[in-house]
Sequence to fold (430 residues):
Amino acid sequence: MKNKVQVIALIISVIVSIASIIVFSSSGDTPPPSFGGVDEIVIWGIDDPALFKDVIKDYQDQFKKKVIYEEKDPRTFDRDLLEAIASGNSPQAIITSTDWIAKNRDKIAPAPQTSLRAEDVETAFIDLATMSLIERKEFEDKPVEKTVWGLPLWIDPIVLFWNKDLFNQALVATPPATWHDFLSTSNKIKELGAGGTIAKSGAALGRARNIPLHKDILSLLLLQQGQILEEALFDERGSKDQAVLSILRFYTDFGKPGTAAYTWHGVLPEPRDLFIEGKLGMMLDRYSYKKELENKNPHRAFDISPVPQTQGGKLAYVADVRAITVPKGSSAHEAAWALARFFVSQPELKKITAEGVIVPARRDLIAVDSMPDILKRSVLNAKASFEQYPKENAPVIAEMIENMANGKLLPSEAITEVRIKRKRLIDEKR
Fold:
């Protein structure tokens, strides 16, 4: 009897999984949306319009409705959106990172539960992609309440870019596999001028002001020690945890004048710009940047490798997840969410990710056998560091890094200070 019950449970589980996949499988099955009187659907994003060209054409052919995609500068995205909402010109949909979505839920219209179940999203897409997009509220006397804030499109892991010419000049044959080797390699490549000026940087680490991915890198280092960023930095125990303090010291020493690791300064250009100039040995960036770098500077001799790991630590990688969502200011919520479902349907998402520089977030589209080894390793071992208060965390983490790199605060003092400031921000939010 017990075996029969287990078999029945397994069959039910399989049926539910198949049903959930089917919900997002066929663009042709998407129900005709109510356009709410709008003449066209405008999508804002931070990616190359060429990615969405075929999908937009398919949508326009099927629904006979004009779709316009506008590429925005990620550095001014927040300001542009706020201005658009204030003037009544909000886009109908947004394609951006899940990190942005998690920070800006107050600007988003959640998916309608009547047409988009959280359980279907969780089944159709890998956990890494849905963690920041589905909000879960637990209650003592009723089931868990789930809210969908976006639908995942693709995964873009962070990898190590390294300049072959600078490696050759420093007599280094291979990219570093551990952070110990990373530090050693950086020191062999870097060149310091008079007064500590940096003529050639070994690695882009140590600061927050001019390293856009500083929080992702810090999160990566913590995950490799089995630590979650928000808990490690803002829990009462964080300031006393030697592993956390060591990681903060390791990261900020690269940006702190006078240390053996010093190779980065707050007035340097951002890593991508310095790498293109040929004055940076290593940087951590998203895999998809490889194509852009090749187009911008086809003569630059570089290669990419998996991010270094902590010797004796946990195998861990981090990745950016791109998703589509609907802003509150959208004049056609129903049509925009129907559009989102269309974009993540199997045939359309397959077209978006066809070039292989990004990995589709759908379980049934992740073709492990055909993935380059670096993508396979970086995506399938990627860990998520969920944050309950990403908006409040971001500014205080940046301030903490800068204060440590400038020598204003010791790691333990920096954690204590930012914990107090972040608590104040959360209390003000409430």
